[in-house]
């Protein structure tokens, strides 16, 4: 994928963290730089003072608790909307460990709506502004990918859905509820039962319909698979994908389709891969002590360049995003961390990963 | 003089308790306090440290130093485990400093190496992989030096806190020492991988596997899978001897599993299922081995039109005679999984299939048959019902085996028979496949079917040309094969259309070449169709021309595409020049008065 932008958001310290006695070790130094300090616990340790335990990371933009939802939206996602309206694809990812604010960023709350809400609002506005000689049709679906199974969050009773790839190579979820987000009366009447796709637009005041749409999303979000976060069972992850499709038909100019994916990824905290005897696995260049992991080492040796046919079939998430993962789509990643000293290891992992994502450009 | 008897025993006890806490108890620590036991262990170790510094100095300076070093080591590992890297590093450094002057002696060498191993791990945790490398390579060098200069089983570090009567046997000492070194090599394998020194990483993985068999204890199924996976790496490097050795060892070790009867019934069923699957997976690795060997040989032997070049064949045969003995023995020794009890079994399997390039049909056929056997074995588990993708890949491999064997076969009729086998097996899986769900595989099969029909048609024509004239039966055959080839190429091209059934303006990179080749072959096929009806012939030529034009036009519009289809483009351009003239002549014959 071509990552156009990587943002980092530090949430405020939580009450639980303060109660534990954790100190803040992650700081936003300026608009782009975040510093993480390695917390020291050993009281004997006087000699450490001379060496710096701080590491700094540079991102396209960084936020801390002083940033509002609107600021985050403006700096990251807003620029994608115009492109989607005119037929391009875009993706926004929220990445980070459980509890660091991904859902808050994407969905937000009633009083502090998140990226999804702002994006939809902006979309409706943009459509209203240009709907002279152009017809628009906006539809959206909200789905969950959990353990490689796809569930429609707007109609969970359908059970597990299938991905279908049409002859043109576009990947769709068969049978998913599509809500026409323009005509919001239909939203409140039909959802969650409806099979969407209302008539193409009459111009409308987007803001009036927005609250209903957001209610639907909030309801859908409560349908996400909950499980207690236990770090030593095999990984089970729930990704929530909000897919908004904008079809534009200009007189004499044909049909264009833009898709925007807004994704709240499953928690990135590491789950133990083997019965690891309490020792937590770390990613990156770290050496794995256990000889049981020799297999992974050997597998990695044969990792060759892509074969004649590019293999998009790695996972359901990748397949769904196939369109967006090409060279000419925009991707924004918003990584999240907690500032607490108790979350040091995970914060460092997230920062390292997000930092590396910055250097991926379209091939 | 020994330290005061009772006091020393107490010290040893404390030390042992600390170690038990660290290694055994810590596994039971709750999620909320994952390092509880380790902190307790640390406190105990600190106490021992205090007791030691209170002990008498004097004649026992060296012994004291070593004991202190053991404590520093344990504390270093303890701090590293609890993510306090700076403290960990300090303790480990102190340990190596204390041991430095005596590091090559039997009472210190093992501890020194383990300390360096842990320093390597520590630096990797800081993402400083090159620094990790220096520590680990230093440990490696020390081991080699010790084995060369002394070689006797050295003391295990835990013995420094044991009473005389508890000391362990030489055999056990050796085992533990070798295990420490195996870890050094295993860590180095990971380091080399991160540094992208892939060949070295593979070499160290191989050595680790080897040593697992000899010293470390291993799970047979896991070991077998690892060895089989390693063989695939060797295949990618065309190192067939090493690949074969890994596979043979994998098969032998795997058969050691599943010999332990299990008491509980439901466990057994799932386990049996897993075992069968693993066995089938190893079979698939063998299939790839045979296929790769044959295909690599083909590349060496083929001339520029894809036929076997007899001169090359003679050359390579002569070369083989010379090289055979010397090189092989050296390489073989380096990679031998050498424990004596499995050696013979491994050799027995190795002797069933060659690891040198087959240079004629006989040799190729032997390898083919081995591959075919593994195909049957793999298909037993990977049946269509439940393992569609795997099953199809195995069938594709089977088809590829036939295809490459055909290359070695001189007789055209027999070649046709091989291609017929391919058609049968590919069509039978294609016909049941839903192209919507399995788009990629569908395309692959369409293309392969078309290519096979195309090849068969060419063979029939070649066979026919040897006779005086083509009889009507042969003509029918040729036409039917051509039509079928066209059908499948068209199906493939259709699969590229978008939902509105429009053929894409510009082709994506991964389908560009196959699409162009399909168009080119269709053009050629229309040119090969045999008909006595001149009007029909004109139509065919016209269609042919249109397809050649497609290539020429596309490459003009998208010049980047040229390098994907250079040869075909050249020929297309020629035909675009020639065909209109031929068509004119034919038209003139038909309507001489216009």
UniProtKB/TrEMBL annotation, chain A:
Gene3D superfamilies linked to this entry: Kinesin motor domain
Keyword Ribosomal protein: no
InterPro entries, per the entry: Kinesin-like_fam, Kinesin_motor_CS, Kinesin_motor_dom, Kinesin_motor_dom_sf, P-loop_NTPase
GO terms assigned for molecular function: ATP binding; microtubule binding; microtubule motor activity
Subcellular location: Cytoplasm, Cytoskeleton
Gene Ontology biological-process annotations: microtubule-based movement
Domain Kinesin motor: 3-360
Binding site for ATP: 96-103
Key words, A-Z: ATP-binding, Cytoplasm, Cytoskeleton, Microtubule, Motor protein, Nucleotide-binding
Major subcellular location class: cytoplasm
Tree of life domain: Eukaryota
UniProt GO cellular component terms: microtubule
Family: Belongs to the TRAFAC class myosin-kinesin ATPase superfamily. Kinesin family.
Listed name of the protein: Kinesin-like protein
TrEMBL record, chain B:
Cytoplasm in keyword set: yes
Entry annotated with the keyword Transferase: no
Keywords (A to Z) from UniProt: Cytoplasm, Cytoskeleton
Cellular location(s): Cytoplasm, Cytoskeleton
Cellular component, GO annotation: cytoskeleton
GO-annotated biological processes: central nervous system projection neuron axonogenesis; microtubule cytoskeleton organization; neuron projection maintenance
Role: Activator of KIF1B plus-end-directed microtubule motor activity. Required for organization of axonal microtubules, and axonal outgrowth and maintenance during peripheral and central nervous system development.
Family the entry assigns: Belongs to the KIF-binding protein family.
Name under which the protein is recorded: KIF-binding protein
Organism in which the protein naturally occurs: Cepphus grylle
């Amino acid at each position: 994928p071509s990552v156009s932008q990587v943002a980092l958001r530090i949430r405020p310290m939580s009450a639980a963290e303060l109660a534990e006695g954790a100190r803040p070790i992650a700081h936003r130094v300026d608009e782009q730089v975040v510093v993480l300090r390695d917390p020291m616990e050993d009281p004997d340790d006087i000699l450490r003072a001379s060496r710096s335990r701080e590491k700094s990371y540079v991102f396209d933009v960084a936020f801390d608790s002083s940033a509002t939802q609107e600021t985050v939206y403006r700096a990251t996602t807003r620029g994608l909307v115009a492109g989607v309206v005119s037929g391009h694809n875009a993706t926004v990812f929220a990445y980070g460990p459980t509890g660091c604010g991904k859902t808050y960023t994407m969905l937000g709350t009633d009083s502090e709506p998140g990226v999804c809400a702002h994006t939809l609002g902006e979309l409706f506005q943009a459509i209203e502004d240009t709907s002279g000689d152009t017809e628009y049709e906006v539809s959206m679906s909200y789905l969950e990918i959990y353990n490689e199974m796809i569930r429609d969050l707007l109609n969970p009773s359908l059970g597990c859905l299938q991905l279908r790839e049409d002859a043109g190579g576009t990947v769709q979820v068969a049978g998913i509820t599509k809500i026409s987000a323009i005509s919001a009366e239909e939203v409140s009447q039909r959802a969650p039962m409806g099979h969407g796709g209302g008539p193409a637009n009459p111009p409308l005041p987007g803001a009036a319909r927005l609250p209903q749409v957001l209610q639907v999303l909030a309801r859908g979000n409560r349908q996400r698979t909950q499980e207690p976060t236990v770090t030593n069972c095999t990984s089970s992850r729930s990704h929530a994908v909000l897919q908004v499709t904008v079809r534009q038909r200009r007189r004499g100019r044909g049909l264009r389709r833009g898709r925007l994916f807004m994704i709240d990824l499953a928690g990135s905290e590491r789950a133990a891969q083997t019965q690891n005897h309490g020792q937590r696995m770390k990613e990156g260049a770290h050496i794995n002590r256990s000889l049981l992991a020799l297999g992974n080492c050997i597998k990695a040796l044969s990792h060759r360049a892509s074969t004649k046919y590019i293999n998009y079939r790695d996972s359901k998430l990748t397949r769904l995003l196939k369109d967006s993962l090409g060279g000419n789509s925009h991707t924004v990643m918003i990584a999240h961390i907690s500032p607490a000293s108790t979350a040091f290891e995970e914060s460092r992992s997230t920062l390292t990963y997000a930092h590396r994502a910055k250097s991926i450009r379209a091939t | 003089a020994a330290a005061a008897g009772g006091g020393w025993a107490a010290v040893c006890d404390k030390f042992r308790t600390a170690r038990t806490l660290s290694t055994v108890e810590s596994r039971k620590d709750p999620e909320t306090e994952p390092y509880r036991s380790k902190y307790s262990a640390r406190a105990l170790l600190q106490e021992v440290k205090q007791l030691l510094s209170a002990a008498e100095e004097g004649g026992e300076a060296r012994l004291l130093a070593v004991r202190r070093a053991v404590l520093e080591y344990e504390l270093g590992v303890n701090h590293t485990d609890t993510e306090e890297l700076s403290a960990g590093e300090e303790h480990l450094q102190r340990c190596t400093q204390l041991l430095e002057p005596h590091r090559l002696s039997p009472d210190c060498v093992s501890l020194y190496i383990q300390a360096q191993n842990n320093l390597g791990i520590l630096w990797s945790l800081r993402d400083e992989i090159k620094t990790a490398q220096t520590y680990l390579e230093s440990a490696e060098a020390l081991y080699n030096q010790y084995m060369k200069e002394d070689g006797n089983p050295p003391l295990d570090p835990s013995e420094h806190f044991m009473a005389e009567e508890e000391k362990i046997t030489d055999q056990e000492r050796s085992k533990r020492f070798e295990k420490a070194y195996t870890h050094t090599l295993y860590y180095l394998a990971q380091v080399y991988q991160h540094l992208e020194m892939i060949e070295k990483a593979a070499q160290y993985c191989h050595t680790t596997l080897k040593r697992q068999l000899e010293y470390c204890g291993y799970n047979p199924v896991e070991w077998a899978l690892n060895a089989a996976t390693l063989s695939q790496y060797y295949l990618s490097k065309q190192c067939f001897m090493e690949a074969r050795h890994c596979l043979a060892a994998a098969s032998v070790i795997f058969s050691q599993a599943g010999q332990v009867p299990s008491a509980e019934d439901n466990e057994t069923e799932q386990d049996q299922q897993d075992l069968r699957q693993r066995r089938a997976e190893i079979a698939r690795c063998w299939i790839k081995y045979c296929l790769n060997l044959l295909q690599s040989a083909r590349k060496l032997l083929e001339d520029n039109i894809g036929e076997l070049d007899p001169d090359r064949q003679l050359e390579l045969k002569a070369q083989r005679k010379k090289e055979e003995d010397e090189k092989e023995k050296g390489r073989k020794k380096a990679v031998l999984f050498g424990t004596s009890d499995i050696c013979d079994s491994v050799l027995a399997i190795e002797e069933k299939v060659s690891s040198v390039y087959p240079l004629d049909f006989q040799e190729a056929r032997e390898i083919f048959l081995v591959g075919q056997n593994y195909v049957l074995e793999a298909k037993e588990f990977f049946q269509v019902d439940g393992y569609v993708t795997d099953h199809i890949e195995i069938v594709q491999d089977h088809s590829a085996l036939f295809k490459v064997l055909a290359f070695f076969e001189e007789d055209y009729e027999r070649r046709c028979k091989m291609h017929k086998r391919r058609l049968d097996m590919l069509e039978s899986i294609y016909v049941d496949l839903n192209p919507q769900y399995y788009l990629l595989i569908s395309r692959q099969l369409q293309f392969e079917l078309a290519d096979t029909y195309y090849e068969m048609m060419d063979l029939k024509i070649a066979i026919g040309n040897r006779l005086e004239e083509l009889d009507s039966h042969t003509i029918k055959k040729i036409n039917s094969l051509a039509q079928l080839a066209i059908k499948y190429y068209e199906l493939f091209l259709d699969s590229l259309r978008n939902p509105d059934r429009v053929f894409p303006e510009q082709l994506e990179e991964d389908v560009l070449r196959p699409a162009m080749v399909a168009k080119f072959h269709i053009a050629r096929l229309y040119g090969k169709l045999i008909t006595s009806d001149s009007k029909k012939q004109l139509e065919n030529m016209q269609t042919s021309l249109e397809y050649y034009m497609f290539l020429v036009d596309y490459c003009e519009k998208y010049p980047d595409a040229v390098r994907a289809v250079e040869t075909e483009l050249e020929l297309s351009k020629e035909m675009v020049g020639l065909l209109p003239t031929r068509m004119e002549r034919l038209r003139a014959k038909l309507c001489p008065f216009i």
